[in-house]
Every structure is written in structure tokens, then in C-alpha cells.
Design brief:
about 375 residues, mainly alpha, Lysin, 3 domains, 3-stranded mixed beta sheet, 15 helices, 3 strands, about 70% helix, Zinicin_2
Length: about 375
């Protein structure tokens, strides 16, 4: 299906080099990012009240090729169920393709590997950090199930581009990423829920050759439309109807997670990041900008939808915390049933009423006049 070695080779060959720094500067950046991730962890744990790991492993700091290799490892873990299913179909003859089928599959997997490598090369110059949910299994069972990763060249590039205080910006980024670590280590069921939804999404892929050809044609139409300035994206184009329903659930939980991260990084920020308002304003301008080609690629890959997730999710968290406090908001992490739906993210009162009850959003009674005894 995908030649992963080809993907890594293509991605690391195509990715653009990071900003120029001396060896001493690079070591200083790596050391500071590790230290600041620990500082951010303490702030996030205290502010959110989430029962996250009190003593997590230090953040892993990587360069752009390192990010590509790590994500290929993650893709392998996520895509394993789909690849096993396709292998079963090949074994039964459904996808064998007759004589020469093995050669066609080998060539196709290399082509797909090149495509994945190109996508990763593009993303590797833009991602600042992430909490990696899907790591190769550790035979000893001692390694953590997730890993916080920061991409040092990209952080340095953005802080220079925005002309903001490096220390403040690095801590601000760490606050966001440490919030993701708190979510997935402090909520026992969340990682498995996301993985199950992703597995269902992949297994809902329509493997019928005719249907796949239709998806490819739809994708080609989307590319042409995007070049003309249209709003379509490849993610929508290649989905089956069943996948759309699953993706709706996945999008809701990731909108919550990303919005929660954005809310925390800004809410904690004024106390520990003096220039947070300047950073937010300039960073938001960077999210919204870019060349026409860059905007087209972002739209095709669905990255604009991710930017929308940050805004919608943060607005939901702000609204809920403003009405019921952080403890009330944290009811969202009780179970999959208490997660907000897409509709509830746009209408936070509906989530509050469903999960916390209608009295939770009733206005406080007006104070009554007390006789002064005169």
C-alpha cells in the first residue's frame, strides 16, 4: 500500500532546511525547550486541574527530518488495521489483479510513498510541536504510550519571522503542547477513543476498485477547483458516506482538544508570558496569511479546517468556563458521552444543559434589599 522507506527518503530529501544557527545556538534552543516544557507542564496542571502525569518524560526536540521519521512510525501504527484488511483481500483474490499484480502493487506502493513523503516534507516545515499518540509498541512495556515532540527549527523560524521575544514564544508554544499531553495522560479513555475512531474511519474505506476510481476523479476535480480559488479539500473528496459520520465525531473531539490548547496557552499566558498579547496577534496574522499557492495547498489538505478548529474550540471552552468555571468545564472529560457534538461546540449552552443540567446556566438570582433597621 505504502512504501514507508520511500516516504522517509522522499520527505527528508524534499524538506527545506531550517534557519541557520550555530551548533552552540542549536544546543541552547534544545535545552531551553526541554526546560520550558517542564515549566509549562506545571502551569497547565495547576490551571486546568487535570490529573495528568505529575512527572512526565522530557519533551523530545527534533529537527524537520526527525519529525518526518517520527510521523512515519506513527502512520504505520495507525494504518496497520487497514493494511491487514487489504492483505486479506489480496489473499482471497479480490485485489490480486492477475499476472503481474505483485509488480503493480510494488510500483504503486513506491508512488504512494513518494506522495506521502512530499506531503510530510511540506508539513515538516510548519508544525511547531505535537503530542504523538501513536508510537511503535515497546517490547519492555516501560516506554510511555505517547510522546511530546517539539520541532526546534520551526519554532526558531516563526519567532524570528514574527519578531517576538524568543523565551516568551517558546514557553507559549510549550503551554499549548503540554495541554495536549495533559488531555491524553489525564483522561484515561481519550487516547483509546481517538484510536478507535481512526481505526473505524480507515476500515470504512471503500476498497472496491470502481468506487476508489470515483474517489480519485473527485479528488482531481477538487484540485482543479482549488487552483481556481474554490473551497473544496481532498479529505472531503475521498471519503465514503460512512467515513463522513465517523469524521464528524473525530473532528468534534479534535476541535475540543485544539481549542482547549489555545484557550489554556492564552489564559495562562498573561501570568507567565508578558508579551502574550503581541504574540497572539502576530501569530494569528501568520495563520491567516501566506502566498496564494500556500493558501491553496492548505485548503486542499484541509489545514484551513484545522485553523477553524482552533477558533471554534477555543470559543467553546471560553464560553463554558465563563459560565460554569473550570471544574464545570472538566465534566467534558468524564466519558465519550460527555464530549460535545459539532452542534454543541457552536452552541455551548446546549452542551451545558445536556451534561450539567439546565440549572447550571440559570442566571443568579437578583440580590434582595435587606432592611437596615433604621
Amino acid at each position: 500500500m505504502i512504501d514507508w522507506n520511500t516516504a522517509v527518503q522522499a520527505g527528508t530529501r524534499l524538506v527545506r532546511p531550517g534557519p541557520q544557527v550555530s551548533n552552540a545556538e542549536a544546543r541552547e534552543v534544545v535545552a531551553e525547550l526541554r526546560d520550558l516544557s517542564a515549566v509549562a507542564h506545571g502551569h497547565v496542571r495547576e490551571f486546568t486541574g487535570m490529573a495528568s502525569d505529575p512527572d512526565p518524560a522530557p519533551a523530545t526536540v527534533v529537527d524537520r527530518p526527525g519529525w518526518i521519521r517520527a510521523n512515519v512510525d506513527g502512520f504505520r501504527v495507525v494504518l496497520e488495521p487497514l493494511m491487514e484488511r487489504m492483505q486479506e483481500r489480496r489473499g482471497s483474490g479480490i485485489l490480486s489483479g492477475g499476472p503481474g499484480g505483485v509488480m503493480v502493487q510494488a510500483v504503486g506502493s513506491r508512488v504512494t510513498g513518494l506522495q506521502v513523503g512530499g506531503l510530510l516534507a511540506y508539513m515538516a516545515s510548519r508544525v511547531l510541536g505535537q503530542y504523538e499518540l501513536f508510537l511503535p509498541p515497546d517490547p519492555s512495556g516501560r516506554a510511555p504510550t505517547g510522546r511530546l515532540t517539539l520541532v526546534a527549527p520551526n519554532i526558531v523560524h516563526v519567532e524570528r519571522d514574527l519578531e517576538v521575544d524568543p523565551h516568551d514564544f517558546r514557553l507559549w508554544v510549550c503551554l499549548h503542547e503540554e495541554t495536549h499531553r495533559a488531555q491524553f495522560t489525564g483522561v484515561p479513555w481519550l487516547r483509546e477513543y481517538v484510536q478507535d475512531q481512526m481505526t473505524e474511519f480507515l476500515l470504512a474505506s471503500d476498497l472496491d476498485p470502481g468506487a476508489m476510481l470515483d474517489r480519485i476523479r473527485d479528488a482531481a476535480d477538487v484540485v482543479a477547483d482549488a487552483i481556481r480559488g474554490g473551497e473544496g479539500n481532498l479529505i472531503d473528496a475521498i471519503q465514503s458516506p460512512e467515513q463522513r459520520a465517523i469524521l464528524d465525531r473525530l473532528t468534534a473531539v479534535m476541535t475540543l482538544a485544539e481549542g482547549h490548547g489555545d484557550y489554556v496557552m492564552d489564559a495562562v499566558g498573561p501570568e507567565v508570558v508578558p508579551t502574550v498579547q503581541q504574540i497572539r496577534a502576530r501569530f494569528q496574522g501568520r495563520r491567516d496569511g501566506g502566498s496564494r499557492l500556500d493558501r491553496t495547498i492548505r485548503r486542499l489538505l484541509g489545514l484551513d479546517l484545522k485553523m477553524k478548529q482552533y477558533a471554534e474550540g477555543a470559543a467553546f471552552v471560553r464560553a463554558v468556563v465563563g459560565k460554569v468555571g473550570m471544574d464545570g468545564f472538566n465534566a467534558v472529560w468524564r466519558s465519550p458521552e460527555t464530549l460535545p457534538t459539532h452542534a454543541e461546540i457552536a452552541a455551548p449552552d446546549r452542551w451545558i444543559e445536556r451534561v450539567l443540567g439546565p440549572r447550571a446556566i440559570e442566571p443568579a438570582p437578583e440580590p434582595t434589599d435587606v432592611p437596615d433597621g433604621s
